[in-house]
Amino acid sequence: MPDRTYPAHPDIEKVLLTGPQIQARIAELGAQISRDYAGRSLIMVSILKGSVIFLGDLMRAVSVDCSVDFIGLSSYSGAKSSGVVRLTLDLRENPEGKDILIVEDIVDTGLTIHYLMENLKTRGLRSLEVCTFLSKPECRKIEVPLKYVGFDIPNEFVVGFGLDYNEKFRNLPFVGVMRPNGGK
Ligand code: 5GP
User: Fold this and answer.
1) Among 57, 51, 11, which residue's Cα sits nearest to residue 33?
2) Which of 174, 176, 171, 182 is nearest to 52 (CA)?
3) Are 96 and 28 in contact (CB under 8 A)?
4) Checking CA distances to 5, which of 11, 77, 125, 170 falls within 20 to 30 Å?
5) Bigger pLDDT: 136 or 79?
6) 90 given a catalytic annotation
7) 154 Cα–ligand 1 center, Å
8) Would the CB of 99 count as within 6 Å of ligand 1?
9) Spatial distance between the Cα atoms of 51 and 91, rounded to a whole number of angstroms
10) pLDDT at position 8, please?
11) Model pTM?
């Protein structure tokens, strides 16, 4: 994939992760997941909408059979957490007896993933793990078991590679921090 990191978007103050850095890490995660699930098949459960870009690349880096399903959760509006998690769309397929890998864009407080894990655990799964593209360990309000983490990042609001600010910037092929008043 061409590196569209530079020139960066005019609303972006700094780039935290370049496209090539992200792709190299996704290849490693894909190899690890393929080893861990060898001889099994898994369902990747992607949390809308932020994780879909990561999901697309991660799926193509995984060599075991895998299907995909989507779940809608909302906990944020703008750059501020409302602290309340809502289920806005449920899975299409019954996950009972299946190996489920939750694919998330970023784990911040942990409340969203905690809510989803508790919800899915009641559905008789064979196994449940999480693969998150980004994690902000300093921000955790609740401990959540994250088996696969792309990158630990500092406590900054980031956009790009699926992550938005008011629906903008999801298409940036890198992860960056906005300038003050960016995204207007
Ligand atoms: P948590 O429940 O772990 O606090 O938050 C998870 C959700 O908050 C993520 O799925 C994402 O939608 C949003 N979020 C948390 N931190 C960021 C960030 O730095 N940038 C963006 N764009 N979204 C974030």
Assistant:
1) 57
2) 171
3) no
4) 77
5) 136
6) no
7) 13
8) no
9) 15
10) 72
11) 0.93
